[in-house]
């Protein structure tokens, strides 16, 4: 294990702000080596998945990543555990701490995640909350690195709802020296706390721009990134948001204003014809499927790091 990831052994990942720039760089390097078979971490431990929100990529990539480490996975569905019947999170955390080696949680409230981290001594990983989605950003940054050979100096533009993905992109890009621009309608901008934290983390290494102007935001950008306009739990708002968010759709017209070699990213699932057009998503500049695959490699690297896996 490299010194930059050895420091992660036994630690929680509740927010990208918990990490340093060298630690993220180390995780990305380890993920890249795992992807091409250069290294093979081995860690016969047990991962628990406690997901109160639906999941495809996060659930499957964490599971496959743990199996490839030689470990096992227990799916702790709320409807099959006492969590679904109202057992206090503090009690559940202290019991799971006695059974598991690492716990990934996908839930609504960030505070629920914090409670598990407080009462369990095993590493607790944020697999998505309403505030952040840090594991997604590892895959995004690895995809950027693969496309351009480096991260520092690149410009990524996020268009759409200032949601949990936008929050984590702000932090992650700031930490690795990527200029981050977030273009949203005025009433849908990311929370000010995340914007200010990103600016502090970026320092004079990169820039942070929050704007309502999608044309300004994509000018010369190396990556255009979008997400659904209504996140999980907001589906009833989707149809009302379409006319508000239409100017932020990632389409061929907007893509022509970016860098000629720009790539297109989407964390999925996607609604073709809403936040992104089908021709762009399936086009030559799309890296959406590489990005989805990289969830596996980056999460395997994360698990290996927090568990102190043996590297062959």
TrEMBL record:
<dbReference type="InterPro" id="IPR024904">
    <property type="entry name" value="OTCase_ArgI"/>
</dbReference>
<dbReference type="InterPro" id="IPR036901">
    <property type="entry name" value="Asp/Orn_carbamoylTrfase_sf"/>
</dbReference>
<keyword id="KW-0963">Cytoplasm</keyword>
<feature type="binding site">
    <location>
        <begin position="55"/>
        <end position="58"/>
    </location>
    <ligand>
        <name>carbamoyl phosphate</name>
    </ligand>
</feature>
<dbReference type="InterPro" id="IPR002292">
    <property type="entry name" value="Orn/put_carbamltrans"/>
</dbReference>
<dbReference type="Pfam" id="PF00185">
    <property type="entry name" value="OTCace"/>
</dbReference>
<feature type="binding site">
    <location>
        <position position="295"/>
    </location>
    <ligand>
        <name>carbamoyl phosphate</name>
    </ligand>
</feature>
<dbReference type="GO" id="GO:0042450">
    <property type="term" value="P:L-arginine biosynthetic process via ornithine"/>
</dbReference>
<feature type="binding site">
    <location>
        <position position="164"/>
    </location>
    <ligand>
        <name>L-ornithine</name>
    </ligand>
</feature>
<dbReference type="InterPro" id="IPR006130">
    <property type="entry name" value="Asp/Orn_carbamoylTrfase"/>
</dbReference>
<feature type="binding site">
    <location>
        <position position="227"/>
    </location>
    <ligand>
        <name>L-ornithine</name>
    </ligand>
</feature>
<dbReference type="InterPro" id="IPR006132">
    <property type="entry name" value="Asp/Orn_carbamoyltranf_P-bd"/>
</dbReference>
<dbReference type="GO" id="GO:0004585">
    <property type="term" value="F:ornithine carbamoyltransferase activity"/>
</dbReference>
<dbReference type="GO" id="GO:0016597">
    <property type="term" value="F:amino acid binding"/>
</dbReference>
<dbReference type="Pfam" id="PF02729">
    <property type="entry name" value="OTCace_N"/>
</dbReference>
<comment type="similarity">
    <text>Belongs to the aspartate/ornithine carbamoyltransferase superfamily. OTCase family.</text>
</comment>
<keyword id="KW-0055">Arginine biosynthesis</keyword>
<feature type="binding site">
    <location>
        <begin position="231"/>
        <end position="232"/>
    </location>
    <ligand>
        <name>L-ornithine</name>
    </ligand>
</feature>
<keyword id="KW-0808">Transferase</keyword>
<dbReference type="GO" id="GO:0005737">
    <property type="term" value="C:cytoplasm"/>
</dbReference>
<feature type="binding site">
    <location>
        <position position="82"/>
    </location>
    <ligand>
        <name>carbamoyl phosphate</name>
    </ligand>
</feature>
<keyword id="KW-0028">Amino-acid biosynthesis</keyword>
<dbReference type="GO" id="GO:0019240">
    <property type="term" value="P:citrulline biosynthetic process"/>
</dbReference>
<feature type="binding site">
    <location>
        <begin position="133"/>
        <end position="136"/>
    </location>
    <ligand>
        <name>carbamoyl phosphate</name>
    </ligand>
</feature>
<feature type="domain" description="Aspartate/ornithine carbamoyltransferase Asp/Orn-binding">
    <location>
        <begin position="152"/>
        <end position="305"/>
    </location>
</feature>
<feature type="binding site">
    <location>
        <position position="106"/>
    </location>
    <ligand>
        <name>carbamoyl phosphate</name>
    </ligand>
</feature>
<dbReference type="InterPro" id="IPR006131">
    <property type="entry name" value="Asp_carbamoyltransf_Asp/Orn-bd"/>
</dbReference>
<feature type="domain" description="Aspartate/ornithine carbamoyltransferase carbamoyl-P binding">
    <location>
        <begin position="11"/>
        <end position="146"/>
    </location>
</feature>
<protein>
    <recommendedName>
        <fullName>Ornithine carbamoyltransferase</fullName>
        <ecNumber>2.1.3.3</ecNumber>
    </recommendedName>
</protein>
<feature type="binding site">
    <location>
        <begin position="267"/>
        <end position="268"/>
    </location>
    <ligand>
        <name>carbamoyl phosphate</name>
    </ligand>
</feature>
<comment type="pathway">
    <text>Amino-acid biosynthesis; L-arginine biosynthesis; L-arginine from L-ornithine and carbamoyl phosphate: step 1/3.</text>
</comment>
